[in-house]
From TrEMBL, chains A, B:
Residues 28-161 form the HTH marR-type domain. InterPro entries: HTH_MarR-typ, MarR/SlyA-like, Tscrpt_reg_MarR-type_CS, WH-like_DNA-bd_sf, WH_DNA-bd_sf. It holds the Pfam family MarR_2. The keyword Iron does not apply. The lineage of its organism: Bacteria, Bacillati, Actinomycetota, Actinomycetes, Micrococcales. This is DNA-binding MarR family transcriptional regulator. GO terms for molecular function: DNA binding; DNA-binding transcription factor activity.
Amino acid sequence: MGTPLSRDPIAEARRNWEDHGWADVAAPMAAITAIMRTQQILLARIESTLKPFGLTFARYELLALLSFARKGSLPMNKASALLQVHPTSITNAVDRLERAGLVDRSPHPTDGRTTLIELTTAGRTLAKSSTAALNAEVFSAPGFDPGDVDHLIRILGSFRRNAGDFEE
Amino acid sequence: MGTPLSRDPIAEARRNWEDHGWADVAAPMAAITAIMRTQQILLARIESTLKPFGLTFARYELLALLSFARKGSLPMNKASALLQVHPTSITNAVDRLERAGLVDRSPHPTDGRTTLIELTTAGRTLAKSSTAALNAEVFSAPGFDPGDVDHLIRILGSFRRNAGDFEE
DNA sequence: TGAATATACTAGGACATCCAATGGTTGGGC
DNA sequence: GCCCAACCATTGGATGTCCTAGTATATTCA
């Protein structure tokens, strides 16, 4: 987004917090802000890799989820729960994927309320190739030390469990 | 967003990656996905805390940045660089903050291209009270172990430096 | 000095997310 | 057997982010 700054803006914010009498919460504030910024950087990389495939991250996630579904199809509310996004976001993503010929909607055989989504052949092919691209361009060189990757998975896993994402 | 899942969806995705021959990138994939989800959870908490103040996180960040500016004013391009967002996002945020009477725009005294933004009295008051709310409701109980907070700051700081956010 | 280049902000469009409200569909309790 | 609460998907509205273009101002250099 521009040239590197001479100093870390988050470290600067942390100093500001400490100087204003909020030293007790300065470190968590810095950690949370750093997560926000890291997500932004990673998302930009992912979107840039997916762009040639005509996909956004939201649509890719749905495509990938469907490609792993045993039956090849998934109810929309199930997708919403697994991807942890609002149902309307799924509706939006399916609208666009369907218009692009990558998924199909079909009524649930026994429950008239739910809609099933299923990959088309083109969708399955694109899921494969875009995943290969993400693996090669993003996940294989994420910018973390290998040891830090395990730390992150543990720390964030614990956080998500405490936040009520899952039990276990 | 719903009831807790019985299993961690990210751990599940990691297993899927390993089962499909991508074991070498499964762990970074899981870490990156966890960062995405963690950011989503934290952002929701922050937005919920800021809602009573009529602020969003984007507008709050700008307000907080201005409240720490020595001169009390900041060029828009400077704000864009420090918050690491696109210049048009700053324009958008300033539009709304200005309409709410929280900031003012004024022309730069010597450079006719740049616009300065400055807190109004109401803006300064709101910056204080909303920061107090965030400190009390989010940063004081972030959901991380104290030791993990330092780990995160170090790991993510290193990542951001490698990504070109800042030098040093 | 005058033209080419660089910088700063804004306007309009595409996309994603959430919330609130709507219209069907199910299924349990009486 | 019926009714109402719960559930599912969609629509419309608000916000935010980025991108591309366009306009205006500065700076550089021939």
